[in-house]
Structures
1.
Amino acid sequence: MNVRRSAAVLAAVAVIGAAAPATAAPSPSPSQAFPSALYGDKDPKYDGVWRQSLALLAQDTVGVKPAAKSVEWLVRQQCADGGFAAYRPDPTTACDARTMLDTNATSAAVQALAALGGHDDVTAKAVGWLKSVQNGDGGWGYSAGGASDTNSTSVVIGALTAVGEKPDQVEKGGKSPYDALLKLALPCGGDGDGAFAFQPDKKGKLTANADATAAGVLGALGKGMVVKPGEKSDAACAQPRTREQAAANGAAYLTSALGKDDDHLMSALAGAEPQPDYGNTADAVVALAARGDTGQAEKSLRWLEENAATWAAQNGPAAYAQLVFAAHATGTDPRDFGGADLVKQLNATGPAPQAAERTNAADDKGEKDSDSVFGGWWYVGVCLVAGIGIGFLFTGRRKQQL
């Protein structure tokens, strides 16, 4: 629901000349300890706030109360002006001009903290920063001043909606985020029939992109990462003059793309063999379900249940969160996801949820309640699963064509 972040990150990294690996980042060395409050055990340089936000949002979605220290870690990542960087190893050091603030990380943090509640001051400052860096076309790029892209604009729309803002009223130069998305929607007919592009190329041409299309459908619907099945409105592909029509066109494109490869999407990185794209497939499920296209969404979810376990284990908390969002969107129990308990697997990548912490504390005092659903036996089982991080979150989900 990259959400929607890899192409934006890769573009930003290319601009500043700091090339990042497209696969899993290296595990920390014995002398390199990451915060105990952080979900995942891989280098958080590029995705710390993002994966933390997704993990906390997914836990809240399934009724799990995250560890207080994990929420506090996320809050302390915010800079004084309201924005969030991808990761700040020392949050006691003030942000400065060298701190690369990130619209995607900021928007993900807003969605997580708004869902958890009790952080209105933090989310208000973050939304204020997002508004301050809105582009003249109404959209957002990955970083302040960057060219608007579908993924970033859509995840910001999700943040605005999460705090009760009306995205169509958040304007810059008379343009709203929806205006920006409509400019990135391909017309009907020809290649990319009804899809969204990530960004125009240097000549202004739009090229269909499945990940951007999943993001664009959610954005055009005014939705965030967590959705429930919507009501489908049958509509043939037509010129995307309204956001609703653009969403319908994009959903039709995703349905067609998923159907070509046994109900899943394929990656298409230059120079690499095409591979199943689990993350983008999960995002497509959420987008289709949000618009009420539940038939294809459910077929693709079944494919994920059968095939995504290894991918999720390799990529950690954000990957588990994406699958939780996909399950939730289709009304599927994430605790019985093809026989796997996604909630237990997600919880195992970070600190114990608050209820489990309280139960363990009671056990230490000899106050164990054998009937408690959060008894020590349950969490011990969770802890036996190794904490799995996400390298560069974008391994399965964020394969873009820049």
Note: Residues 1-8, 13-31, 357-402 have pLDDT under 50 and may be disordered.
2.
Amino acid sequence: MIARRALALGLSALAALLAACSSSPKPTPTPLEPLQAKIAGRQVWRQSLGTPVAGLSVAVLGDRFLLASARGQLTSLDIGTGEVRSRLEIGAPLSAGVGSDGRHAAVVTQDNELVVSDSERVVWRTRLNSRVVTAPLVAGERVFVQAIDRSLWAFDAFDGRLLWSTPRSGEALSLQQPGVLLAYRNTLLAGVGPRLTAIDPISGALRGQMTIAAPRGTNEVERLADLVAPPARLGETVCVRAFQSAVGCVNAERGSVLWTRQQGGHQGVAMDAEFVFGSDASDRITAWRRSSGDVAWSSDRLRHRGLSAPLSLGSTVVFGDAEGWLHLLSRDRGETLLRLPTDGSAIVAPLVRSGLTVLAVTRAGNVFAFRPE
């Protein structure tokens, strides 16, 4: 029996546990169909990052992408050309990706040290009492940090003063996977177990909770339903995934749940004005109508290909896979429109965009920028 105590459970550990309970071989990835491209697109530049930090997130800052390597280097890349604008050595291996407001950037080391820098130097450091794998959020001259036990800290971005903190969630298990942490106007939104919590960023006081999933199962592993990154936001609507449980959308202004739908899966979601996109544990892709949660379409053509979280891009939705391909699908029908290669290794970070430039980071540590045309 699993002890009832706070325990970080990584995806690799969960996979090993599930594998031990089953002798079934790993499913064979669905072969890629021959494709006659229906839209144009090309690689516009490529850079080397080095080994990416586990759970890497990429910050989009005006005309720059900001990324962190596992060994502790922050790299700023020009969005148009891929040219290195700046590099900063943190001096220690990292456990979480980078968050930034354009002035301050924040990372967390494997020794549980929060490190905050400006564009040229480290300005302060402070020790945390829990492991962190979620990229810090830098907003409103504050740095917000979420630990794997879903406790939260808020620090002054300029001098590192602790402003407030919250206790650990009390959940029996928590994922060693980036969680949900984002700003909505003057509210901090954070995933705590299967709930999206609304918090006063000034005082840390709880403003409300919105439940995305009702975990069911015979043990703590089966009931594990932490909200996982990346979330999707458009206006007042925020949509999230609860690990292996459900996808749901809330109205962040009213603090109310709009809809939830049961679906297994461990990657976050994307959204546009009409649809919410996500893939389940077998990489079956579903598009739900944003207003109602009704299924608009689903597709099995990329099953078992190790899909990344999706990215909404104009008339398309984009997924990366474990072989380094980017798949651009029609947003309204799921038809494959274009397929673009990287270096053959898995896409390991959520895809991001600036305008029509899409950034993909591979396990081999290469950074690719593409531009559909």
Note: Confidence is low (pLDDT under 50) at residues 1-23.
3.
Amino acid sequence: MAGHGTDEHPHGADRLCEAGDRVYSRAVRRGRVPRRDAEPVPCLMELALLHPDPDDMDWLVPTSPQEVMTRLLRGMYDEVSASQRRVGSAVAAFEWYSGLGRQVSSVPSAAEGPAIRVLDGLARIQAAMDEATRACTTEVLTVQPGGIRREAELSEGLHRATELRGRGVRMRDLYTHVARHGQGLLTYLELMGDAVEARTLDEVIERLILFDRTVAFIPANAERTMALELRHPALVEYLGTVFERLWRLAIPLTAPLPDTGIEGISHREQSIAALLAEGHQDAVIAERLGISVRTCRAHIARLSETLGAASRTQLGVRIAQAGLDGAHRPAAPVTLPGRGSPTAR
């Protein structure tokens, strides 16, 4: 809200303003507070003392006093010689807040964090992923939809990938087949060397980043300005299983895509044909394959020309005749118009 910026709240989590103290105390005591109650005290969101309730974004839930305490002490001990009095103040303050909680024993430990945490804003997302990167020791699994990866996106996570490679962490990435045509991705993989293995599929699930089968990050809105940090063992295990099954189906980036067996029809056009046969619209097909709607329609036009279809209805029939609808291929090969015996139109 206007008039309540950080200039009016120049303090840390260890010495809240009077208004912030009231709202945070109420949140700890009751378990959550309406978002509107926190609007006059933006310091609580900025200091990560409150965050959106995953079940209802109109409410805010408090970060446990124990977790806040641990986060404060981690930073303070780096400057212990100049911060001893602040450490004592923080300990005293959060011992008081801890006594307000109704179910302290059920709160996850500070080391593990909450099972599901909403990360609101790109800065908060990046900070959480940086923290997960520092704690990672074994492997990172990622799913990257959206087709060709922009160099800005690749550069954004380069520092994390470089840090992980330096510690011998194994990285496996899944992309769509379209990503093969991006020079930025090829340059990134060449830079990472054997530390990163990449495979591609016709289409993949939404973005997923999984560290050590312990913590996962997924988008929480379409704009990807919010994310969910997942630490629930069952959820993380499920996402790891999904990744492994997609990985087995995927094609290594170093291997060529399989030939369709039909002259004049590319692998991408085969994928588009299968999705058309399922009844999907052009925009949906483009999004799932990571291409633009314009490119998708150009491929559909080439499909129609190659299969000799004069309309979308006729194209659907020809797709089925050619075995491009995902079903079993017909026993007898289909001869395309203009490539041998004529096919009835």
Note: The longest strand covers residues 56-62.
